[in-house]
Q: What sequence folds into this?
């Protein structure tokens, strides 16, 4: 039976080892093909990420095994992705945004709605008007983001990884511009 939980800030620390194991499984797959060095970098960064304002982790567990997760934190107004190829659109510049840092689903749980539910719970009720994330353009997730309404607003490349599409999604769609 799937159980979804939400943890904020340092409440997430007890899940870091499980999160790292899921990361290692998911990101070993193509197109990522990440190995121990990238997994270690991910694990080492979790404590710093969990203390960022607005940090939220949503977990999906199946009989005690972490099978899906997504987390993010508030990217403050005036800030944007490191190494972006261009500034963000003006409507994103002056507002806080939810920066979705990871969204992972165990391969055995894909196609069952686990990922959609984890992301829905992460985005639901956020105070930010926009969400943003970086996605590998060759990944299956990139197509799902497009179908869910995320739009590309730029690109970036980290020194240790591939080019990434920078995407944004309006969260409070009921507010008129």
A:
């Amino acid at each position: 039976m799937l159980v979804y939980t939400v943890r904020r800030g340092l409440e997430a620390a007890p899940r870091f080892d499980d999160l790292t194991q899921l990361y290692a499984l998911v990101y070993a797959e193509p197109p990522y093909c990440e190995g121990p060095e990238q997994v270690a970098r991910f694990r080492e960064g979790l404590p710093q990420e969990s203390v960022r304002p607005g940090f939220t982790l949503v977990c999906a567990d199946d009989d005690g095994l972490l099978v899906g997760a997504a987390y993010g934190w508030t990217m403050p107004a005036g800030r944007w992705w490191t190494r972006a190829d261009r500034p963000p659109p003006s409507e994103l510049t002056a507002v806080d945004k939810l920066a979705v840092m990871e969204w992972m689903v165990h391969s055995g749980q894909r196609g069952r709605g686990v990922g959609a539910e984890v992301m829905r719970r992460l985005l639901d009720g956020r105070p930010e008007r926009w969400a943003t994330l970086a996605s590998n353009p060759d990944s299956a997730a990139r197509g799902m983001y497009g179908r869910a309404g995320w739009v590309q607003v730029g690109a970036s490349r980290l020194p240790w990884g591939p080019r990434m599409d920078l995407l944004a999604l309006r969260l409070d769609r009921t507010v008129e511009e």
